[in-house]
Amino acid sequence: MTLNENIDSLILAGGQSRRMGQPKALLSVQGKPLIAHLINQLSPLTHTTYIAARDKAYDIKKALAFQSTAYQNLNYIDDYFDTDEGPLSAIAAGLQQTDKEWLWITSTDCFGQMIEVFSLLTNKTSPFSSPVIFLNHNDRLQPMQALIHQSLADDLIQTLESGQRAVIPWYKKHHAIIVEYTNPNFYSNLNTPDDYNGLLSHLSE
Description:
This protein is α/β, with parallel strands linked by helices. 32% of the residues lie in helices and 21% in strands.
């Protein structure tokens, strides 16, 4: 698949990782930080890759610097709010930043063939589609694997300013399209050490 000039991507890497006990973006998988695998897959697919890392930005930059000089000029952005207000705050900042038609949202706690996810989501875009398209993987909703139209930037800011933080209700407001995905080798919501160890065990088989 070739680069899509109408889409930017946003990696959500600023979560607290409380259950994991360490930043999920920096988990070592096959000798690289988890976020490096995402960057390597997203960069050839979308025009610009942004990273919303909040207070993790310094540590992520440092970890990636040990990998390759290619990671030195990545695009880090701040959330819409200075305080931790959840993923919608980061998405709002991304929608403000991009000048492309669509923003591809992905969480840092996933591992798999992102090109498949990208293809499934982009195949649902059209001038008449919903401005929100997101994944359902093996009967589990994945709201942080989504395409969001840039036209929703102002609406999302108004939503945040009104005090709403829940992702799914905001998606439903815009009649989101849900795309089914069943690849068993796609790992998402790596929230705990057991989840992480499960991924490592699978990759070692």
